[in-house]
Amino acid sequence: MTKETDQLIVNTQTIHELIKTGKRLDGRSLTDYREPITVQTEVSWTAEGSAMVQIGETKVIVGVKLSLEKPYADTADQGGIMINAELLPLSSPIYNPGPPGMKAIEMARVLDRGIRESHAIDLKKLCITPGEKAWFVIMDIVSVNDDGNLFDAAGLALLAALKTARFPTVKEDGSLDYKNKTEEKLPLLKQPISITVLKINGALVIDPTAEEEFSADARLTVAVDVNGTISAMQKGGDATLTLEDVDGMVGLALEKADFLRGKLE
Fold it and tell me: How many structural domains is the chain composed of?
């Protein structure tokens, strides 16, 4: 184990003791987000849409690329979406170079499910010629600094990038001019936000630091739209969750979704 991992283990006992009293290492209540929370869009001129989100010391960038592809055979009249996540070693000593690790794969799948199951993007409007040509939306998540709660930060950046994305110009020969964007935006039908709630020593916690994530028993990520409709849920961690736990976590997620959405607006 690395020295950083050893320190996380040492802090676990302290975190558990504080949680019992409703306190945290940084002085927040159990359900407070860290400050600052900032959303900056159009941070990459090479992407069709982009955003950088900061929550406390956690920073993440999302870029949206649009390409013309052949639709999938079973959805010949629809475009497609794809989400990738890359957790860079520069953002945390626990990440290594090479293929995406389990956390990157899980985060991409969780956020993909929230977008896909909510039908956030009108995929049929992305189709140009059924069975032949359609727009595909590729979203890349890159960690800049991971001090915990990358899931929420990435989900917020993902939505901000999608809202600002504009289609590239299509030339007469059918090729794309990525240097010149049109004013046409993606056909967004819904705007799901992902909120992650952790269970630590029996208590429910919002916006965990890296140390608190290491100390957690379980977590639940909930994707919810502006109307409070839940499109996806994903459990993580080894501990089981009772029905009471899930009810409390979902209620907290619905409450905090409004708060985080306010930062986006």
Answer: 1
